[in-house]
C-alpha cells in the first residue's frame, strides 16, 4: 500500500507535468520556429498556437495554397480547440464538420529520427508530414455517409533532413458531440517520446490494474460474506472505473487492440461511467444511511440507470450528448453526497474523513476530465490515477470495519474465557440483562413495524394519487410545447398547471404529516386545559371565516354532570385539536350551500368531553359513511386534488384523536346534513 501511494503522490504527477511545452514556443500565423532548440536537454514540444484552418475543405498538401498564392492572410485558429468551444468562419459553434489544418515547423536539418504523437481525436483524421501521408485513422469525409469514425492515437516517425516539417491534418466529425482536435500534436526525439509514452503507459496500467484488483477483492469479500453489501457496491464501482479506464487512456489504446467497433467501444465506455454513479451512491448510502438522504440515493441511481438506457438506445452522435448532461448532473449530486459526508464527519462517524478524501479525489478527477473536454486546463487524462487514489482512500473504511470485526472476535474470546469463574452468577446477570434488552427490542420492533407500515402507505399513496395530476400537468405542458395552445389561452393553461402544482403540494404536505402521525413521530405539546378554557378558545374562532363564506355559525355548551364544582380538565395539544376542528369544519363548509348553518356543540359528561360539528348540507350516503376517515376517500371516488382537498383531512383528524386516547365518529342522513363528533377523556 505504501509503495502504491508513493507512486500516486510523487511519481504519478511526473506523468502530467514532466512534458510541458515552453509557453514562449507557440506557433504564430501558422509558423513555429524550433531552430536551435536543445532537444536533448529540454522537453518535447506541444505544437500549440495558431494553425492555418481551411474550414469545410478537405485539402491534401498539394492542394493547399502556398503563401504567395494567398490573396490575404489565411484563417488562423489557436490549438488545442474543439469546434464546439471556438468560433469558426461563418459558422455557429458545433461539433459537426470537417476541416484541414496546417502548421509549418522550422527545424535544424538532422538525420535524427523524430516522433510526432497525434493528439486525442475521437473520430477520423489523416496526417501528412512534408507531403507524405503518415497516418490515417477512420475515414475522413464531408458528410455522415462518407465518413467513418475510429479512435486510435498514433505516433509517426520522420527525419527532418531538409530542416522543416509541414504538418497537415484533415479531420472530420459527424458522430461525436465534440469535434476537432481537443489536444495538439506532440513533437520530440523518437527515443524520448517513446520513453515518455512507456512511462505514461506503465502508470496508467498501474492505475487500471489497481482499480480492477480492488474491485475483484471486494466482490470476493462479498461472496464470502453476503451481508456486506457495501463491499459489493464498492467492488462494482472499482471494476466499472477500471474497465472504463481501458477505453479512455490514450496510451493503453495506442498500445493495445481492443477489437471492438468505434460505437461499441464508446458505448461501453459511457455505460461504465453511468453505472458507476449508482454503485458509489449506494456504497455511501449504506455506510451512512442517517446522513445521506434516500432521495439523494434515488436521484443518483435514477441518473445512472437513465443515462445507461439512453446510451444503449441512442445512436451516435446523440449518445455522446448524454455524457455532458451526466457529467453536470453527477457533479451536482456528487457535491451533495460530499456535503452529506461532511455531516457524517462532523458527527464523528467511523471512517468519514477517508471517504471524504476519496470522494473529493473522484470529484476532482471528474472535474478535471470536464475541464479537459472544454480546454480550460491542459494536462493528460486525470481520471485513472485520481480515481485510484480516491478508491484507495474510500476502501480504508471497509478495511477498518474488517479489522474492527476481528478485534471484536478476539475480545469476545477473552470474555468467554473469563466466564469460567462464577459462571452461574454471570448467567443470571446476562439473563436479566437479556430480558431487559428483549423488552426494549420488542418496543423497537413495534416502532419499526409501525414506521414500515407508514412508509409503505406513504409510497403507495404517493404513487396512486400523484398519477392523475402529473398526467394532467404533462398534458398541459406538452400542449404548450407543441404550440397547439393559442397565445391568448397560454395564461389559462399556466394557471391550470399552477393550481395542479399547489394541489400536489398540499397533498404531499398532508401525506407526510399523516405518515408521521401513524409512525408516532409527530411531536405533541400536551398540556392540561380546563374544558371552560377550551370552549372559550373555540367560541368565536370560526365565526368570521364562515360568515365570509355565506354560512351561519353558532356554538353551544352543556355540562351534564356538574360534579364537585371544579372545572373538568383534559390533557391535549390545543394546536392539534384546533387542526382537527379546522379539518372537520372545512369539510362541512365544502358540503354546505350558501345560507346554510354550521353548529359547534360542546358536551361535558362524567368521563369525557364531546365536540360535535353539525351542518345542514348535502349529507353523506350510508354506503360512504364507514369510510370517510380512510385515506383519500371522497364520495365522488375521483381521488384528485382539483377540488382543493387532498382527501386526507379526516384521516389526519382521526390519527390526532387516537393519539389523545379519544375516538371520532360520524352520523348523517343523505340530504339532511351530517354530524361529525369526537370524544376526549377527562383527567381523573
Automatic annotation (TrEMBL):
Going by the record, the broad EC class of this enzyme is transferase
Q: InterPro entries attached here?
A: 7TMR_DISM_rcpt_extracell_dom1, BphY/WalK/GraS-like, Galactose-bd-like_sf, HATPase_C_sf, HATPase_dom, His_kinase_dom, HisK_dim/P_dom, HisK_dim/P_sf
Look up the EC number in the record and give it: 2.7.13.3
Residue ranges of domain Histidine kinase in the record: 461-684
Mark the transmembrane ranges: 201-220, 232-248, 268-288, 295-314, 320-345, 352-372, 378-398
Q: Where in the cell is it found?
A: Membrane
| UniProt keyword annotation of Lyase present | no
Q: Which reaction does it catalyse?
A: ATP + protein L-histidine = ADP + protein N-phospho-L-histidine
A GO molecular function assigned to this protein is: ATP binding
Which Pfam families did the record assign?
7TMR-DISM_7TM (PF07695), HATPase_c (PF02518), HisKA (PF00512)
Report which superkingdom the organism of origin falls in.
Answer: Bacteria
Instruction: List keywords of the entry alphabetically.
Output: ATP-binding, Coiled coil, Kinase, Membrane, Nucleotide-binding, Phosphoprotein, Transferase, Transmembrane, Transmembrane helix, Two-component regulatory system
Q: Is this entry keyworded Translocase?
A: no
Identify the SUPFAM superfamilies for this entry: ATPase domain of HSP90 chaperone/DNA topoisomerase II/histidine kinase, Galactose-binding domain-like, Homodimeric domain of signal transducing histidine kinase, MFS general substrate transporter
Residue ranges that the Swiss-Prot or TrEMBL entry lists as coiled coil: 409-454
PANTHER family the record matches: PHOSPHATE REGULON SENSOR PROTEIN PHOR
- Please report the name of this protein according to its UniProt entry: histidine kinase
The species is Paenibacillus filicis
Q: Give the organism's phylogenetic lineage.
A: Bacteria, Bacillati, Bacillota, Bacilli, Bacillales
Amino acid at each position: 500500500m505504501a509503495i502504491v501511494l508513493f507512486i500516486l503522490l510523487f511519481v504519478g504527477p511526473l506523468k502530467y507535468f514532466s512534458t510541458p511545452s515552453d509557453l514562449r514556443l507557440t506557433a504564430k500565423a501558422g509558423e513555429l520556429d524550433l531552430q536551435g532548440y536543445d532537444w536533448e536537454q529540454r522537453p518535447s514540444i506541444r505544437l500549440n498556437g495558431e494553425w492555418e484552418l481551411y474550414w469545410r475543405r478537405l485539402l491534401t498538401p498539394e492542394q493547399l495554397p502556398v503563401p504567395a498564392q494567398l490573396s490575404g492572410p489565411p484563417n488562423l485558429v489557436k490549438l488545442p480547440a474543439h469546434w464546439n468551444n471556438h468560433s469558426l468562419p461563418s459558422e455557429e459553434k458545433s461539433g459537426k464538420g470537417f476541416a484541414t489544418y496546417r502548421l509549418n515547423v522550422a527545424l535544424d536539418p538532422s538525420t535524427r529520427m523524430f516522433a510526432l504523437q497525434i493528439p486525442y481525436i475521437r473520430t477520423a483524421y489523416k496526417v501528412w508530414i512534408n507531403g507524405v501521408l503518415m497516418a490515417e485513422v477512420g475515414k475522413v469525409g464531408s458528410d455522415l455517409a462518407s465518413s467513418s469514425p475510429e479512435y486510435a492515437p498514433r505516433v509517426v516517425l520522420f527525419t527532418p533532413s531538409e530542416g522543416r516539417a509541414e504538418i497537415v491534418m484533415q479531420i472530420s466529425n459527424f458522430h461525436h458531440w465534440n469535434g476537432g482536435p481537443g489536444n495538439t500534436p506532440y513533437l520530440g526525439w523518437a527515443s524520448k517520446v517513446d520513453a515518455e509514452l512507456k512511462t505514461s503507459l506503465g502508470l496508467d496500467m498501474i492505475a487500471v490494474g489497481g482499480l480492477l484488483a480492488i474491485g475483484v477483492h471486494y466482490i470476493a469479500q462479498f461472496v464470502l460474506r453476503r451481508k456486506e453489501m457495501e463491499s459489493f457496491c464498492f467492488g462494482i464501482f472499482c471494476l466499472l472505473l477500471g474497465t472504463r479506464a481501458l477505453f479512455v487512456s490514450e496510451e493503453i489504446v495506442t498500445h493495445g487492440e481492443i477489437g471492438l467497433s468505434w460505437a461499441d467501444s464508446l458505448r461501453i465506455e459511457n455505460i461504465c461511467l453511468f453505472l458507476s454513479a449508482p454503485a458509489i451512491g449506494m456504497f455511501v448510502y449504506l455506510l451512512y444511511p442517517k446522513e445521506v438522504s434516500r432521495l439523494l440515493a434515488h436521484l443518483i441511481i435514477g441518473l445512472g440507470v437513465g443515462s445507461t438506457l439512453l446510451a444503449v438506445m441512442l445512436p451516435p452522435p446523440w449518445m455522446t450528448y448524454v455524457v455532458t448532461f451526466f457529467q453536470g448532473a453527477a457533479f451536482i449530486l456528487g457535491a451533495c453526497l460530499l456535503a452529506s459526508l461532511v455531516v457524517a464527519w462532523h458527527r464523528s462517524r467511523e471512517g468519514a474523513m477517508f471517504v471524504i478524501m476519496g470522494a473529493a479525489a473522484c470529484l476532482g478527477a471528474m472535474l478535471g476530465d470536464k475541464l479537459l473536454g472544454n480546454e480550460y486546463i491542459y494536462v493528460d487524462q486525470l481520471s485513472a490515477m485520481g480515481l485510484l487514489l480516491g478508491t484507495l482512500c474510500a476502501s480504508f473504511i471497509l478495511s477498518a470495519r474488517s479489522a474492527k470485526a476481528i478485534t471484536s472476535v478476539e475480545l469476545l474470546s477473552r470474555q468467554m474465557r473469563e466466564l469460567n469463574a462464577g459462571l452461574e452468577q454471570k448467567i443470571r446477570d446476562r439473563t436479566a440483562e437479556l430480558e431487559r434488552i428483549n423488552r426494549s427490542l420488542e418496543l423497537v420492533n413495534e416502532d419499526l413495524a409501525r414506521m414500515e407500515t407508514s412508509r409503505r402507505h406513504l409510497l403507495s399513496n404517493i404513487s396512486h394519487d400523484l398519477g392523475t395530476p402529473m398526467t394532467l400537468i404533462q398534458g398541459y405542458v406538452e400542449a404548450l410545447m407543441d404550440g397547439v395552445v393559442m397565445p391568448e389561452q397560454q395564461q389559462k393553461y399556466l394557471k391550470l398547471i399552477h393550481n395542479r402544482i399547489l394541489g400536489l403540494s398540499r397533498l404531499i404536505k398532508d401525506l407526510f404529516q399523516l405518515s408521521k402521525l401513524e409512525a408516532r413521530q409527530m411531536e405533541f405539546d400536551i398540556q392540561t386545559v380546563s374544558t371552560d378554557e377550551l370552549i372559550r378558545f373555540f367560541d368565536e374562532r370560526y365565526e368570521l371565516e364562515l360568515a365570509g363564506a355565506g354560512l351561519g355559525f353558532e356554538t353551544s355548551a352543556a355540562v351534564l354532570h356538574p360534579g364537585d364544582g371544579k372545572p373538568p380538565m383534559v390533557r391535549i395539544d390545543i394546536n392539534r385539536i384546533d387542526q382537527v376542528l379546522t379539518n372537520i369544519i372545512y369539510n362541512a363548509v365544502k358540503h354546505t350551500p350558501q345560507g346554510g348553518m354550521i353548529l359547534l356543540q360542546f358536551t361535558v359528561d362524567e368521563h369525557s368531553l364531546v365536540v360535535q360539528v353539525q351542518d345542514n348540507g348535502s349529507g353523506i350516503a350510508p354506503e360512504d359513511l364507514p369510510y370517510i376517515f380512510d385515506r383519500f376517500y371522497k364520495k365522488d371516488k375521483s381521488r384528485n386534488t382539483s377540488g382543493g382537498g387532498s382527501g386526507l383531512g379526516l384521516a389526519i383528524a382521526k390519527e390526532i384523536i387516537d393519539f389523545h386516547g379519544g375516538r371520532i365518529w360520524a352520523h348523517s342522513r343523505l340530504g339532511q346534513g351530517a354530524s361529525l363528533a369526537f370524544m376526549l377523556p377527562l383527567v381523573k
